[in-house]
Amino acid sequence: MKLTIDNKEIECEEGISLMEAARRIGIEVPALCYREGYDHFTSCMMCMVKDTKAGKNVPACSARAADGMVVETQNDEIRAFRKSTLELLLSDHLGDCEAPCQRLCGVHNEVPQIIRDIMAGQMGTAVAHLRSDMALPAVLERFCNAPCEKGCRRGLVDESVSIRALMRHAAEWDLQNAEPYVPPCAPSSGKRVAIIGAGMTGLSTAYYLALMGHSSVVFERQPRVLPRLRDENGTEVLPDWVVEGELRLLNRLGVEIRTGIKAGSDISMADLRRQFSAVVVACGAVPVEDLELLGVPGTAKGIIADAGTSQTKIDGVFSAGNAVKRDTPILRTVQQAKAMATCISQRLNGKQIVGIYEMYNHMMGRLQPEELKEFASHASPIPRVRSADAGHVSFAKEAAVLETGRCMHCDCRANHDCDLRTYSDQYGAVQSAYKGEQRATYVQMNGGTGVLFEPGKCVKCGLCVRVTSKDGEKFGFTFVGRGFEVKAAISLGKSLEEGLEKSGSKVVEACPTGALANAEE
Amino acid sequence: MSESGASTCSGGCGGKTSSRSPAELDLAPVEAIVASIGRRPEDLIPLLQAMQKHYNYLPKPALERLCQITDITPDVVDGVSTFYSQFRHHPVGKHVIRTCTGTACHVSGANILHDTFRQHLKIKPGEHTDGEGEFTVEEVACLGCCMLAPVAQIDDVIYGQIETWKVPDLIEDFRASEKTRVSADANGGKLSARDTVGEVRICLCSSCVAGGSRKVYDEVMRQSEKLDIPVKVKDVGCTGISYDIPLVEFHLYNDNRYRYGKVDPVDVRDLLLRHFRPISWWKRAGARLFHTLETFFTDESWVPPTRYSQDVRHGVEKAYTGAQVRLVTEHAGTLDPRSIDDYIQHDGFKALESVLKQRKFEDVIAEVKSSGLRGRGGAGFPTGMKWEMTRATPNDVKYVICNGDEGDPGAFMDRMILESFPYRVLEGMVIAAFAVGAHEGFLYIRAEYPLATKRIREAIRVCEERGLLGENIMGTGFKLKLKVVEGAGAFVCGEETALMSAIEGGRGMPRFRPPFPAQSGLWGKPTCINNVETFASIPWIIRNGAKAFAAYGTEKSKGTKTFALAGKVRRGGLIEVPMGMTINEIVNDIGGGVPEGRKLKAVLMGGPSGGCVPAHLAHTPVDYEALKSVGAIIGSGGMVVLDDTDCIVDIARYFLSFTQDESCGKCTHCRIGTKRMKEVLDRLCCGKGRKGDLELLETLSTITIEGSLCGLGKTAPNPVLSSLRYYRAEYEAHVQGKCPARRCKNLVQYFITDTCFGCTRCSQMCPTDSIPMNPYHHHVIEESTCTRCDICLQVCPVNAIEKIPM
Fold first, then answer.
1. ipTM score here?
2. Using an 8 Å Cβ cutoff, are B404 and B445 in contact?
3. Do residue B107 and residue B233 come from a single domain?
4. In a domain, B248, yes or no
5. What are the pLDDT digits (tens) for A474-506?
6. A323, B56, B190, B554: least CB-packed within 10 angstroms?
7. Gap from B677 CA to chain A (nearest CA, Å)
C-alpha cells in the first residue's frame, strides 16, 4: 500500500494510522492527546491533517492510512486551524508559564528554579541555572534594583521573598568554591569581537558572547576593570575577591582583557573594525569629544544606537549601556548587554538580527484572594528572613535555606517541557483570542508523592486516565463530569497518593502540559 | 440549564446535605442489586440506576462497595456516574420537580417557570432543595410533551400548560393527590364477561396523561361500573392530536364514532349517558333522577360537552388529519398499544412472516433499498445501504440496535411511536436482524421515557411467549434476543458511537469514524443501528412493497416522515406527512397557523442541530436536500413554530446552552468553542454585547464545526449560523442592547398602562411584592425588585401590563 504525505511517498502495511505513517518518514504531526504506546483518544484535534483527495481534514492519530491517499500535514488552512485549537485551549488554561519574578527580571533569571535548587541543597545546579542567564551575578546582585521582588506574589501575603540575597548567596558560594562553575559554551564560531570598555556593560557583553561561542577582547583605558563601580563604592561594598572571582571566570571563558588602552587614540576604530568581526562601544558616559575621537556618531546624550538591535550608525559597531544613555540602572545595562550580544551573535552567524526571542508565555493575571491563599498554603509561613538584606553581608547557608521555604513557586514546573507552550509558540497562538467571561479558580494538589497536580492546566487529553488504567492503579485518574466542566481527577474523590501508588512518574511523563509535574523539578 | 447537567462532584461532597452519615449507610442493598443485575462492565448503568432508585442518590460508600463486589473499577464507576445527568451525588428532597426545558417549553417561558418553583418553595440560591427537604428542583432536557408546554414533572406525574401563577395550586394538587395516585400505566381496560355495548377509546401515552387523560380514563372506568354500562374502555395508541387532549372517542357498535376533545372528568358521566344506556332500568331511572336533581340544586349550570365535540368527518380535525398519511403511525387511535392480538388483527407481523418464510435476506435488503427509505434519526443515510454494509462484514456475531435516545428538545416522535406502536418497532427490528444476520439486539431508550421503556419491555416479553422473538421465531429457526437498555440522560448518546459506548457501560463519548458501526460497532462487532421510526417504517414497506412507499415523497426523499409539531401553532401534535409537503402546508393547513392573530416568524427544524426556516421561505418542502439548501435540516423531526413575539437571538442562545450542556467534553472545539459561543450569546441577551461579537460568533462556529468529531459538535453552531443568515439585523439590535421581540428578560421592563383600574390582582399575585397595593388607583411596578416572572401580565384582567424596552 502506497500513500503520499507532504510530497513524500511511503509504503506501509494496512491498518496503521496516518500519524504512524508520517513518523516513519520523519514527519512529526503535532498532538497533545496522543502518546505512543497508548490508545488514541482523538480529543485535542491538534493532529488534524488534510486528506486532499477526500477534501477534508482528519485527525492523524485515528484516521487510517489508505492506499493512494495524498496527505498534507502543513498548509495555511491547517496552521490556522491548529492556531485556533491552541487558542481555545489557552482560553481555558489557568497558570503562568513563568513566575512574575522571572518575567520581571531584566536578564530573565529563572528564579523559582534556583530557589528550589538552593532549598534542595543543589548549589551547583543553582549556580548553573543562575549563570545561564545572568552575567557577573556576584557583582550584579550587590547593586540590582530587584524588580523580581516587586513582582513577587509573596509580597501580597506578607513580604516578598529575598530573591536578590538568595541569588547573591548562590553566586558567592560559587566563587568561594575551590573549583568555581564554568558554564558550557556554544561551539566556537572563530569570530572575534572587540569591546571598548570593561564596565558592567562591556564585561557582560563579553560573557554572553562567550556563551554563544564568540571570543572577545575588552579594551579598558583605566588600569583596572569595573573602574567606576569600584571607585564609587569602595571595597567594603564591592570587595576585590568578588571582582577577581568573576574575572577568573571570564578568563576561563577565553575573554581577553587589555587595560590601559584607550580606544580612539591607542587603537583606531578603523583598525578595530578591520581586526574584529564586530565592535562594541561600552565606554560608559563620556563627553561628546571622546565619541568624535572614537568616530562613533552621537550627541551630548550619548551614542546613537538602535533600541532593538543596539546597532550604531556604523555598520558592525554596536553600543549599549551608559554609553547610549546616562544613568542606566545596572540591571538594565546587563539586560542590554545580553540583548546586544544576541544581536551580534545573530549577525556573526549570518542570521537575521531579531534580538532575544521571547517564547510564548501564559499569564493568569491578578490572583483572587482565595487563590493567593492556595499558593501561600504550600509555602512556609515564616516572616521574611532578612539578615543579609540591608547590609552587604551574605546570607548564611541556614538562613538562605530557611528563606527559600517562603517561595510560593508561581512558575510552571513543566515550562521547558510543555507541548502546549511549544505549539502555542510555534503557531503564534494568542492567549486572549477567545477569552472567556470568567476564569476558573486556581487550585493545586501536592500529595506528597512528588507529583504536583494543577487541574487548571489540564487540556482533558485523558492520557493520565489511560496511563493509570493500563498500570492497574486501584484508584486511578478518571474523567469526572462532562462538557466544559469535565475534569481529570482521581477516582471517587481519593487523594493523589491513593491514586498514584505506582504510576506517578509515568503520568508526569505522559502529561502534555504542566497539569501533572514533578513538584521538585 | 445552569443547574442541570452532569454533576461535577465526584461524590466527595455527598454528605453535605445528608442527614445520615456514611457510617450508618446500609450497604446490603448494593449486594442485593448486584446479585440481581450482574457484575460485568456493561451492567454498570443499570446498577447505578437501581442504586439511585434505592438510595435516592449515589452515596460514595455505596459506589465503593460496588467496586469491591463487581468487575468494575473505580475510575469507570466515577467516570460513568458523573457523565450522565440522571445520576445524583447528593441527596434530594422527598419529591423531585423537573421543569422541562425543551424548545417548546422554552418559548412558553420554562425558565420563568423554574424560577417560580424555586421562589415558591423558598429554595436558596445555589441550592436545589427546599428547607424541609420535601422538594428538589431540577431542569430536564425535554419531557417530550411539547404541545402542553410549559411542562413540569413531579416524581412521575406530569403537569402541562402551567402558568406561573398557578404554581402554588399545582404543588397543593400534588400534595393532595399523593395518596390516591396510581402509578403510570396501571393496567385498566378490563372487559366484563357480558357483551359490551361499545368502546370508549382513550390514549394513555405520557403526554396525554400529562394533559389529564388518566383522570378521564379512571372516571370512565368508575362511572361505567357505577352506571352499569358495559363498555370496553380501551387504551389506544396516540392519535397525535395533542392540541385537544384529553381526547375521548366513543365507538358504538353501529360503527358510529364520536370524539370529544379537552374532556374534563366531570363531563364523563354525561357523555356516557349520552351514548349508552345503563343495563338495568332502575339505574337508568336513578341516573336520570340524579341528573335532574343535580342540575336543579347546583348553581353552576352544566356546560354541555357538545362544546368539545369533534366530528371525524368535518371541520377542524379533518384539516388536521386529512392531509396526513399514516404509515408509521398506521391505525393510530384504534390500536391498543398493549395488545399483541389487536396488532395482529391489524396486519401485525404479516411482514415478518413473509420475510422469514418466503424471502431471502438479499431480497429484503433490496426491497428496503429500492423503497428509498433514509434513516429517520437525522442524518438521512440510506437504510438499505446500512443493512447491506452490515451484512457484508464477515463476523459470526452481529448486533442490531434501535436508537431510541431521542434527545432533541422539542421532538417526541420516537416516544409516541414506542409508546403507541411497540410491536411495530419490534417487528421492524426482527426484519432488520434477519436481513443483516444478527441474533442479538438492543433498544436504547432515553431515561425520560419510562412508559416507552415499560411498554417495550412488556411487548418483548409477550413476543417471546408467542414465539415472535427468541430461539425459533415463527418456527423458522431464526433467532433473535432483544434487550432494553435505559439511557441515563445524555443527549450525545443519540450519536451512534456514543450510544454503543453507553451500552457497553462506558461514558457516552463518540469516537472517530471510520470504522463505521456496520464494520466495527458494539464490542467491535458489525452493528446495524437505526432509529425508532426507521424500524417502524419497515413492516409497512414489506407489506405494501417498496414501490408503494416510494410513491410518496420527492425524488430523493421517499415515503413519509413524522414530525412533532409544536410551539406557536393552533393545533400541534404528532403528525405524519408525505415527504415533499411544504412547511406552509404543515403549519397552516395541519397546524391551523399561528394563534391570536400573531405572525409566523420562523419554523425551527431539527432542534439544536438544525436551523430556522424563516416565514418567507416557508414554501420549502420537507425534503433532505431542499431543507439543507436553506440552512435547516429535517433532523429527527422536531418542528417548533415561532411567532413575532419570539426572539431569534434568545432561541440561538437556548440551543447553544443545550448543546453546550450536553457536550461530552471530549473534542477541544466542542468543549470550549460552544462555551465561548454561549458566553457571547449570553452577553447579547442581557445587553452586554460588544462590537465584533457577531464576527466572533461566526469564527467560533466555523472552527467548532471543523474541529468536532461527532454530529453534536459539528451541528451545534447551525442554529446560530442559520439565524444569523436570516436575522442579522435582530442580532445587531442586541449588540446595541435592544430586543425587538421584547423577549429578552434583561432588555425589557414591565409597565402598567393607563388601562389599569386598580383591581389589585397583579399586586396580590406578585411573588416579590414589587407592585404596591393601591386599590382603585393606577398600579406601578417597582423596577428594581421585579424579576420579570410574567405573572402580572398573565393575571391582569384588562391587559394593562406591557413589556417595554429598557
1. 0.91
2. yes
3. no
4. yes
5. 999 999 999 999 999 999 999 999 999 999 999
6. B190
7. 10
- What cell was used for B268? 364523563
Contacts of B64 in chain A (CB under 8 A): 492
Mutant choice from A492, A501, A507 vs B, greatest count of B C-beta within 10 A: A492
Domains and CATH numbers, chain A: 2-74 (3.10.20.740), 100-180+359-404 (1.10.1060), 192-347 (3.50.50.60), 437-518 (3.30.70.20)
CB contacts of B707 in chain A (<8 Å) are: 45, 48, 81, 84-85
Give yes or no: residues B371 and B416 share one domain.
Answer: yes
Alpha helices (H) in B254-338, listed in sequence order: 268-275, 281-297, 315-322
Candidate from B83, B662, B667 with C-beta closest to A43: B667
State whether B482 and B346 are in the same domain.
Answer: yes
Q: Which helix (H) or strand (E) holds A498?
A: helix A496-499
68-97 in chain B: CB under 8 A from chain A: 73-79, 82-83
**Nearest-CA residue of chain B relative to A466?**
B75
Distance of CA A174 to the CA centre of its chain: 22
DSSP one-letter code for A136: S
Q: Give CA–CA dist B398/B76, Å, rounded.
A: 26
* Residue B359 belongs to a domain: yes
Q: How far is B689 from chain A (nearest CA, A)?
A: 12
- Which residues sit opposite A319 in a β-bridge? A281
Q: Residues 6 or more apart from B323 whose CB is under 8 A from it? A: B577, B581, B585, B589, B590
Residue of chain B whose alpha carbon sits nearest to that of A41: B511
Total domain count, chain B: 7
First to last CA, chain B: 25
Same domain, B437 and B515: yes
Q: Are strands B248-252 and B198-203 parallel, antiparallel or unpaired?
A: antiparallel
The per-residue pLDDT for range B378-426, each reduced to its tens digit, is 889 999 999 999 999 999 999 999 999 988 888 889 999 999 999 999 9
User: What is the pLDDT confidence band of residue B285, given thresholds at 50, 70 and 90?
Assistant: low
Three cell numbers, residue A26: 520523519
Kindly list the distances between the CA atom of residue A2 and the CA atoms of A10, A21, A66, A72, in Å, as whole numbers in the listed order: 6, 10, 8, 15
Closest CA to B797 of B758, B771, B768, B769: B758
Q: Which pLDDT value is given to residue B282? A: 65
Q: What is the pLDDT of residues B547-606, one digit of tens each?
A: 999 999 999 999 999 999 988 998 888 899 999 999 999 999 999 999 878 999 999 999
User: What's the CA gap between B676 and B696, in Å, rounded?
Assistant: 9
Within an 8 Å CB–CB cutoff, is residue B213 touching chain A?
Answer: no
Mean pLDDT for the stretch of residues B748-758 = 93
Cβ–Cβ of B663/A89 closer than 8 Å? no
Give the closest residue to B135 by CA, choosing from B91, B177, B179, B169.
B91
Taking each helix axis from N to C terminus, what angle separates B422-436 and B383-392, rounded to the nearest 10 degrees?
Answer: 40
Domain hosting B589: range is: 560-646
pTM of this structure: 0.89
What burial class does residue A93 get, using C-beta atoms within 10 Å of its C-beta: 0-12 exposed, 13-18 middle, 19+ buried? buried
In a shared domain, residues B457 and B584 = no
**B279 pLDDT higher than 70:** no
Angle at A100 between CA A95 and CA A104, to 5 degrees: 145
Task: For residues B32 and B119, state if they share a domain.
Answer: no
Q: Which residues numbered 634-693 in B keep a CB inside 8 Å of some CB on A?
A: 660-669, 671-676, 679, 682-683
Within 10 A of B777 (CB to CB), how many other CB atoms are there?
12
Asked whether the beta carbons of residue B667 and residue A45 sit closer than 8 angstroms, the reply is: yes
Measured from the Cβ of residue A8, the count of other Cβ atoms closer than 10 Å reads 12
Query: Of the residues B52, B81, B110, which one is the last residue of a structural domain?
Result: B81
Parallel, antiparallel, or unpaired for β B801-805 and B748-752? antiparallel
